[in-house]
Amino acid sequence: MIRGIRSLRQPPQDIFIGSPSRGPIQDQLWRHCGREPLGPLTTVRAFNEALHGLGTELPQFPEHELYRTFRAAFPDTASVRFTHTDLHPLNIIISSSSCEVIGIIDWQESGWYPEYWEYVKTSFNFELSGRWHDYLDVVLTDPYEAEAQALGLYTSTGIFREFLQ
């Protein structure tokens, strides 16, 4: 099921990052950081710059090595894929007789995002959910561990404090 969703592609001449209706990004990280709606964006680089820019209120931004390391972890050449953005245990329905995913709910944040975003956000969500992090590579078969670790490092600055409360 997840593989099928991740295989969706936009027409090459009409790439954008945003909600399915070509609207702003609905990902809650932006909403909880008190930012204006973002997008739709026309490049992965614009998305990466906006993600990096969430730290503008933090001390020593952008000169500190932490911010440069964070930004460098996100490739501007990533493809754009359809993404749920809020995969976590409460949104994934697993068969009681097997480990098969039989349903996914809670699609309001979904949209077109850089290919690494599903893994990064799922890793972030699974960190909040304890043991489920052990199943991340079962749920998503394309690991973007460097990007997930970079978001974890950025999170350690307190940037998403309101989101985590």
Question: What do you see in this structure?
Answer:
With 165 residues, the chain is of the alpha+beta class. The chain has one domain (2-159): Aminoglycoside 3'-phosphotransferase, Chain: A, domain 2, CATH 3.90.1200. It is 35% helix and 9% strand. It is built from eight helices and four strands, in the order H-H-H-H-E-E-E-E-H-H-H-H. The strands form two sheets. The chain has a two-stranded antiparallel ribbon with strand order 1-4. The longest helix is centred in the C-terminal third of the chain and has 11 residues, at 117-127. This is Aminoglycoside phosphotransferase domain-containing protein. It comes from Mycena rosella. InterPro entries: AGP_Transferase, Aminoglycoside_PTrfase, Kinase-like_dom_sf.
Average pLDDT figure: 84
Sheet bearing the most strands, described?
Answer: 2 strands, antiparallel
Specify the number of helices: 8
What is the helix fraction of residues, given as a range?
25-40%
Domains, number: 1
What is the correct CATH architecture?
A: Alpha-Beta Complex
* Overall 3D shape: globular
Under CATH at level 1, the class stands as: Alpha Beta
Oligomer: single chain
What's the order of the H and E elements? Answer: HHHHEEEEHHHH
Distance between the termini: 31 Å
Query: How many E strands?
Result: 4
- Unreliable spans are none
- Per the CATH scheme, the topology name is Aminoglycoside 3'-phosphotransferase, Chain: A, domain 2
